[in-house]
């Protein structure tokens, strides 16, 4: 019996529902199969996003600002749906089925996109094919086919990103020292795979889109997703499956509903009179913040319901102190959550207006012309270089000088926000130079005599910023959330990306409307050579500076509270 227990993983089962055998399930081999899904998802999503603005403008004849909003709305929806995917995984499907189902949806979306970009009926005629010489904008049916493809991909992305990282970590036992150390490497390689997939997408895939054909490139995405799904399914017998304790969203709603129902009741004089059925070892110490929620733990006879021969508490009428403290911990994440949107609004400019800038500039190296969308390769390179320097140089130096293993999560977020401000400042200065060249160029010039490599600083600054803020946010939202709500907090982190993209769409529409004037040009003109994109970038730099100030205030508020020794019994989970 002891031998059998030592080979089994306590909180995991195999595909038959039996206790998972440590020697036959989990570990690096199954985790690697899951990573294949992630790299193909990144290949599809980023391969479409980084070059979509050129297709919308050049083929579908959509104005510049509207094209940028279509891209940011697509990306924003993808990340927002992560919450929906996480809810399905936690409440109904489980992570394995969620990944399998949404991978099929992603493959279907990329397949339809390949068809929609191939068929002439699904795109307008070229500009020079009309009698008047004017470009004919894509009609409702053509845009509808494009939107159907894009938002199927968005649904697939949302479902996959909510479960891939979680299911990967399920393959390692946190209670085993060896597997716990392997899990740390899994996170590093997970981020590496994201960056590798993005790098391949914005170089090789973008080149295929521009030089061979978009339908071929999107067809490759579809085939790769199907192959990744088959690889993923091949590991079914080797995976470890962990049972969900229910949806964190439902648990949060139960606390709120119970507190509202008891809003008129008085809290007892001592917390010992509040309900808490959690084992002593897993309880979270009570805190004085958000005391209104404590009313959900007031004990009342009518809160129990008869189930069989016993009375059990109705979770919609009475919740434990530990459950309430978990909700309080999630609330404490919100100020940091709200002050990190702005970075991803700036990130959105790297795959929209910065790519449009590149299309107007000299991109030739000898006889080879760099695709405009491939400029984002410098962005990804900055991420990889920054991560390498941080791991190999900064962390060892900080450990030697200060005894700390690198920057804290909040410090990394602050550094990332600072880099984004520098990125927008560099972008504004570069645009001033590009516009001066555009004014001096002859009318009708399609390629301005200015090198596209002058855009590199803005990509490098924002790329370095992402390396800090992405890892800092992920670390903050995971370590500062309760154990039972890690998936929920990861989804909360991903919504900062979503809301950042949506904020970008709002700002573009707002600035377009305010500065458009009678001629309809303004800062964000249909042809950026006649606009003032530098002013828009300056506005983003200013807003980001104010956001950084708000973040510093929130970071001071969200630091862990130092409790007196006699009360300190729950460690980091109290913060």
From TrEMBL:
It comes from the Eukaryota. It is found in: Membrane. Signal peptide: none annotated. It is a multi-pass membrane protein. Keywords: Membrane, Transmembrane, Transmembrane helix. It holds the Pfam family PTR2. The chain crosses the membrane at residues 70-89, 95-115, 190-209, 215-233, 333-350, 370-390, 410-430, 450-470, 491-511, 536-557. GO terms for biological process: oligopeptide transport; transmembrane transport. One of its GO terms (cellular component) is membrane. GO terms for molecular function: transmembrane transporter activity. Belongs to the major facilitator superfamily. Proton-dependent oligopeptide transporter (POT/PTR) (TC 2.A.17) family. This is (wild Malaysian banana) hypothetical protein.
């Amino acid at each position: 019996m002891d031998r059998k227990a030592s080979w089994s993983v306590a909180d995991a089962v195999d595909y038959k529902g039996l206790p998972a055998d440590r020697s036959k399930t989990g570990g690096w081999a199954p985790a690697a199969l899951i990573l294949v899904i992630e790299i193909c998802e990144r290949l599809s999503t980023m391969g479409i996003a980084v070059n979509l603005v050129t297709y919308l403008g050049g083929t579908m004849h959509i104005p510049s600002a509207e094209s940028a909003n279509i891209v940011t709305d697509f990306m924003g929806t993808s990340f927002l749906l992560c919450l929906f995917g996480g809810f399905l995984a936690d409440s109904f499907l489980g992570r394995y089925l969620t990944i399998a189902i949404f991978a099929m949806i992603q493959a279907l979306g990329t397949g339809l996109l390949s068809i929609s970009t191939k068929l002439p009926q699904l795109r307008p005629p070229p500009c020079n094919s009309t009698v008047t010489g004017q470009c004919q904008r894509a009609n409702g049916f053509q845009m509808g086919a494009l939107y159907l493809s894009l938002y199927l991909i968005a649904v697939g992305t949302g479902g996959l990103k909510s479960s891939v990282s979680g299911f990967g970590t399920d393959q390692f036992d946190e209670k085993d020292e060896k597997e716990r150390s392997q899990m740390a490497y899994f996170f590093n390689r997970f981020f590496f795979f994201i960056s590798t997939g993005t790098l391949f997408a914005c170089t090789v895939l973008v080149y295929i889109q521009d030089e061979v054909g978009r339908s071929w490139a999107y067809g490759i995405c579809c085939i790769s997703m199907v192959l990744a799904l088959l690889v993923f399914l091949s590991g079914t017998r080797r995976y470890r499956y962990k049972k969900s304790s229910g949806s964190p969203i439902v648990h949060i709603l139960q606390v709120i509903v119970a507190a509202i129902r008891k809003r008129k009741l008085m809290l007892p004089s001592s917390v010992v009179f509040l309900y808490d059925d959690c084992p002593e070892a897993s309880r979270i110490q009570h805190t004085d913040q958000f005391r209104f929620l404590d009313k959900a733990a007031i004990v009342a006879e009518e809160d129990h319901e008869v189930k069989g021969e016993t009375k059990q508490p109705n979770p919609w009428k009475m919740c434990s102190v530990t459950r309430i403290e978990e909700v309080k911990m999630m609330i404490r994440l919100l100020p940091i959550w709200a002050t990190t949107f702005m970075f991803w609004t700036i990130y959105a400019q790297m795959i929209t207006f910065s790519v449009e800038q590149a299309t107007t500039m000299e991109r030739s190296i000898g006889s080879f012309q760099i695709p405009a969308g491939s400029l984002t390769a410098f962005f990804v390179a900055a991420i990889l270089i920054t991560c390498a320097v941080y791991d190999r140089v900064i962390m060892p130096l900080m450990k030697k000088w200060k005894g700390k293993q690198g920057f804290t999560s909040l410090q990394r977020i602050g550094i990332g926000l600072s880099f984004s401000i520098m990125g927008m400042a560099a972008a504004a200065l570069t645009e001033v130079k590009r516009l001066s060249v555009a004014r001096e160029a002859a009318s009708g010039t399609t390629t301005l005599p200015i090198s596209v490599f002058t855009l590199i600083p803005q990509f490098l600054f924002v790329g370095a910023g992402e390396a800090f803020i992405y890892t800092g946010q992920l670390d903050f939202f995971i370590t500062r959330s309760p154990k039972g709500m890690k998936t929920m907090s990861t989804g909360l982190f991903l919504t900062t990306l979503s809301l950042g993209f949506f904020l970008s769409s709002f700002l573009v529409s707002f600035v377009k409307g305010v500065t458009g004037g009678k001629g309809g040009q303004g800062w964000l003109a249909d042809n950026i050579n006649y606009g003032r994109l530098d002013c828009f970038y300056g506005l983003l730099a200013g807003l980001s500076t104010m956001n950084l100030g708000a973040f510093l205030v929130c970071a001071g508020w969200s630091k862990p509270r130092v409790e007196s020794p006699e009360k300190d019994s729950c460690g980091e989970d109290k913060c």
